[in-house]
Amino acid sequence: MAEMIYLDHAATTPTDPRIVEAMLPWFSEQFGNPSTLYSLGTQSREAVETARAGVAALIGAKPEEVYFTSGGTESDNWAVIGGAYANEKKGNHIITSAIEHHAVLEPCQFLEKHGFEVTTLPVDQYGIVDPDDVLKALTDRTILITTMHANNEIGTIEPIAEIGAIARERGIHFHTDTVQTVGRIPVDVTKLNCDSLAISAHKFYGPKGVGAMYLRKGARALPYMMGGGQEKNRRAGTHNVSGIVGLGKAAELAAAEMEDISARLTVLRDRLMSGIFEKIEDVKLNGHPTLRLPNNVNISVDGIEGESMILLFDMNSISVSSGSACTSGTLDPSHVLLALGMSHEQAHGSVRFTFGKSNTDDHVDRVLAAFPCIVDRLRAMSPLYAMQKGKVAV
Ligand SMILES: *Cc1c(COP(=O)(O)O)cnc(C)c1O
Question: Which of 101, 224, 321 is the best mutation target for the ligand 1 pocket, counting ligand atoms within 8 Å of the beta carbon and taking the most?
């Protein structure tokens, strides 16, 4: 059987063997609870603090501004809900964008049901949030702005520093979901002007179920997990020591290797994009042509469904994703693609390739060999495509 080609690194990444190795002792002989006083515990505590320093260094933060969580979802929930409630005496207005991950959108909807007002900003055809729209949406009751650094579906990189500057000038809490960017492209909290950001280890070769939140010294977010006094009383629960060590190692490796990896992936990305446009007609790139993640290619293919393409790619041992990560089991197209102004049909016909460090030139060749056949086969069976091309009378 052909080698399996994994092209869904926006969904998750394989854990780097060096990270697995760094984690192993913390499952077995080094099992101490970091909150205890004897050496077994203090060793765990030191490992947690080393990881914290590693994560802080990767994002230009101070170690005491980094809090460990169970992942990107928890960090986003905590920042949005905790950030809103910590500032509720100042107002109740929140600004977000139409293309946020569900881990931000749903907490915003929750807050809307509990007395907060939410303005959801539109994006342009490339998925970019206009900082001028943020300015126009501000009211004297605005207490939280949350817009993502790069979108997980279309890869568009947002003008976060500019939006952050607007918030900072007015003392408004600015959260940004950096789950797709930390460990992939440079993220520096001082340049982004953010008060909080979300990190997930499994998106950059670390383990699943662990992440971090950066909370700027002086910024406020009510605790979201309550219990023991861990993480300076801000995030209770016995530390996931092995996971945190894995995240720390992922941060250390990213700091050393990310630049080379992203330069190499950019070449693969661009070769895949131009190959697709050369070989397949009636396709369109989703997201911004240049302001995009180095590893993301998202394509709309006229006349066919993303889900069918995924299945046929899978039969070719290629793992890809459709624009709509059909999470709910419903057939709603992706809210991100719809926000770009696409029709339901176009949004349904999208496919996402996201590269990671083990991908090669040969993998791009394999995709470019398989993709045109997949498209031809599905289009041949598609009444929609025939109709769009005017090949049958309607
Ligand atoms: C994956 C992802 C999340 C969720 O992170 P988890 O660690 O899987 O909970 C949040 N936001 C974005 C943009 C993501 O890509």
Answer: 101
Per-residue pLDDT, 387? 85
334 DSSP assignment: P
Task: Please provide the DSSP assignment of 132-153 as one string.
Answer: HHHHHH--TTEEEEE--SB-TT
* pLDDT of 379 strictly over 60: yes
Sign of CA dihedral 88, 172, 64, 70: positive
Q: Using the mean position of ligand 1's atoms as its centre, give its distance from the Cα of residue 197 in Å.
A: 12
- For 56, 245, 300, 308, the CA distances from 46, given in Å and listed in that order, are 15, 10, 49, 49
Residue 326 has pLDDT above 60, yes or no: no
User: What percent of the chain clears pLDDT 90, i.e. is strictly above it?
Assistant: 92
Do residues 347 and 299 lie in contact, with contact meaning Cβ atoms separated by under 8 Å?
no
Domains of the chain in start order, with CATH, are 5-12+258-388 (3.90.1150.10), 17-254 (3.40.640.10)
Tokens representing 7?
A: 């092209």
326 among known catalytic residues = yes
